[in-house]
Amino acid sequence: MSTTHPAITPNFRQVPARHAWAWVVSGFQLFKANPAMWIILWLIYLAIIVPISFLGPLGSVLTSLLAPVFAAGMMSGCQAVAQQQDLEINHLFAGFKKNTAQLFAVGGMYLASLLAVVILLVLNMDNATLAALKLGQDLTPEQTDVLLRPLLFAMLFIVPILMAYCYAPVLVGLHNLSASVALKLSFMACLKNILPFLLYGVIFTALLLIAMMPMGLGLIVAVPMMMTSLYASYVDVFAVDAAH
């Protein structure tokens, strides 16, 4: 198994926007080191998460709690590959062996934040629009216009939530930080690097669209690369020596 960083809050830095492409390239190099195992890890993750997601509201809660635990495991796998170690199935479950409670807390805070946004969205919608959405009916142009403002309002809150969540699993999993500290640090790091992250989002959106063309088969490569490229961005933004 890979080694972990000491429980010291890492410093982050601002990097140029052009580094977004370097993250994708570095992520591909990590994936290329053992593509079969990366795909196997992703399929195992899906085999666990997909059935749980069918459990209704309970499934949504469980998947939200488990996601950062598995993400931390993926990050430990990335770290192992970067250190020229073998990628193993055990890496996927590394988050269940170390700092697990704080990883669950990351998922819980993330879910609570999204629920708060949903509640605010519902409170800003009229009854007729809510009824139409519940029944799956088509909205009238007037209802669509009314819905647009609260949706934009919700997006203003969702973006910072995603920024806070972005690096939280790796900061908790590899640096032993508490959930609250990791979420705050992740948000600040993303905010300082908003331009490379915007460009990274555009690049990966294009890659995902391309990956979906051949019957979606390209996703078995593109989705694991999202994790490996995220690790590459973490190494860059936090100036981590990936070889140690």
List keywords for this structure.
mainly alpha, 75% helix, disordered N terminus, 244 residues
Please tell me about this protein's structure.
The protein is mostly helical and 244 residues long. Helices cover 75% and strands 0% of the residues. It has helices at 19-33, 35-53, 57-82, 89-92, 100-123, 127-135, 141-166, 168-175, 179-192, 194-212, 219-237. Helix 1 crosses helix 10 (194-212). The radius of gyration is 19 Å and the shape is globular.
So how many helices? Answer: 11
Helix proportion range: over 70%
Compressed to H and E, one letter per element, the order equals HHHHHHHHHHH
Distance between the termini: 13 Å
Unreliable stretches = 1-5
Radius of gyration: 19 Å
What structural class should be given to the helix and strand makeup? mainly alpha
Strand content: under 5%
If you average the pLDDT, what whole number results? Answer: 88
Q: Could you say how many structural domains there are in total? A: 1
Global outline: globular
Largest sheet: none
The tally of beta strands, per DSSP, is: 0
